[in-house]
Specification:
CATH architecture: 3-Layer(aba) Sandwich
Largest sheet: 6 strands, mixed
Number of strands: 9
Strand order of the largest sheet: 5-6-7-3-8-9
Helix content: 25-40%
Bound molecules: adenosine-5'-triphosphate
CATH class: Alpha Beta
Structural class: alpha/beta
Number of helices: 8
Mean pLDDT: 93
Shape: globular
Low-confidence stretches: none
Number of domains: 1
């Protein structure tokens, strides 16, 4: 079966700093992959290379069997970057409408689609307010709603739940699980280790390499610890000894 994301021996340096050292990473339909690693490990860089925002120095990086950027794939992809790229002097509704048009969504039923995605992130009440007055968490929620527009087959979410309250975080994860069950593929990075328990597979990026890549349960067994947070800490301690 074709992968939704396929990275093979991808290397990427910034100047003399080798950020990614021949990493392999795949994501399939019906799967949530959690990419975790210490701050500065290269998680966003890996995503940027996969999506063609950055160019790999070597190796293969494909989305749906094609090299990015590729305009044809825009409608199949929901991407939420680490920093919000929103128009502050527009309302949430106007932002959603703008990005929906960019993605080529049909005008018919657009209002319903905007309502659907804003309800998932509990932003319905703030839909007609200007983004300039939004809190950080509200901006994250709006960015997530934008990524969900059009129910894309592939979702790439860089730290989607930063600044989001626990109850809504739970609601968002329920939605991600529902999408996964329907056959979507989801790549998510997170610093919240209890969220890493909610993914199907964890890829642990440290020292420029994927040092572990398995289900949370299997990793906990392999490392002989009860949680992914403990796996992370143990792996980090081992990495520092090297
Ligand atoms: N455009 C760039 N130019 C130079 N260095 C960069 C660039 N982008 C990233 N880096 C460097 O590459 C390394 C990896 O950064 P990246 O943002 O991918 O890490 P991350 O794992 O996503 O971190 P965090 O969890 O803090 O978001 C960092 O040392 C960063 O400073």
């Amino acid at each position: 079966m074709a992968y939704m994301i396929e990275m093979e021996k991808v290397a990427k340096s910034f100047g003399k700093q080798k950020v990614l050292k021949d990493i392999d990473l795949t994501l399939s339909r019906h799967e949530i992959l959690g990419l975790i690693g210490p701050s500065g490990a290269g998680k966003s860089t890996a995503i940027n290379v996969a999506l063609g925002v950055d160019q790999a120095d070597s190796g293969k990086a494909e989305v749906l069997g094609k090299q990015m950027p590729n305009r044809e794939l825009l409608g199949d992809l929901g991407y939420m970057a680490q920093s919000d790229a929103l128009y502050e002097d527009l309302t949430a509704y106007e932002n959603l409408k703008f990005f929906a048009e960019m993605k080529g969504l049909a005008k018919d039923g657009l209002d319903d689609e905007i309502k659907r995605v804003s309800n998932i992130v509990n932003l319905g009440d703030a839909l007609y307010k200007y983004v300039a007055g939004f809190s950080g968490g509200m901006k994250r929620r709006l960015s997530l709603a934008i990524a969900l527009l059009g129910n894309p087959e592939l979702l790439v979410l860089d730290e989607p739940t930063v600044g989001i309250d626990p109850a809504l975080r739970r609601q968002i994860w329920a939605e991600l699980h529902k999408m996964r069950d329907e056959g979507h593929a989801i790549l998510v990075t997170t610093h919240v280790m209890d969220e890493a328990e909610l993914v199907d597979r964890v890829a642990l990026l440290m020292g420029g390499k994927i040092i572990a890549n398995d289900s949370p349960k299997k990793l906990e067994e392999d490392y002989g610890v009860p949680t992914i947070e403990d796996v992370f800490l143990k792996a980090e301690a081992e990495e520092e000894k090297k």
